[in-house]
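Re: beginner question about structure tokens

> Can someone show what the tokenized structure looks like for a real chain? I only ever see the sequence side.

Sure, here's an example I had lying around. Input first:
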Amino acid sequence: MSKVAFIAACTAATVMPWTLTVAPAQAHERTALTSPGEAVAAPGSVPASAADHPGPHYWMYTEDDNPGGKVDFWPQGDIVRVSDRQDDGAAVEVTVRNETKDPDKHEYKERFQGAGFGKEFRASMGQPWNLAEGHCFWFRIRLIKNGEVISDTKDTAQWRNYNNRKKECPGVE
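And the corresponding structure tokens:
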């Protein structure tokens, strides 16, 4: 083997592992569930099991006996993921309100339906998804079916929007 061929072969071998590592993750984000009866991702949606984002992470589930909804919040980037965990015809609704403002300020409400998938909203999308740094936000998650709230599915939490650490919201109402 010539010296040039040897160097080319070594270069290809060093590039190949990187390519194999990245490609499956990219393909996974665009691949729908393949079992019969399972949902296909809506445009712009991500699998509910997509890789986490950097920084602190908060999450909460709906309060039903087999939680059908989940909300994740990563302060770094103001990322909120609304995930539908079941193929039951119900949508997951998340409301975000700024509790630091007086009076409280409604930021946004989002719904998503698509079993096994979620949709992300982030600061880079502009307002209203760019949440004020250091402020305390109230999150409510619940299930909606046929336009009606499903009873006993609601849960709420308060999370502070600090990028590098978790901090509670004592005394904020």
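Each token stands for a local structural state, so reading them left to right follows the chain. The longest strand covers residues 136-145.
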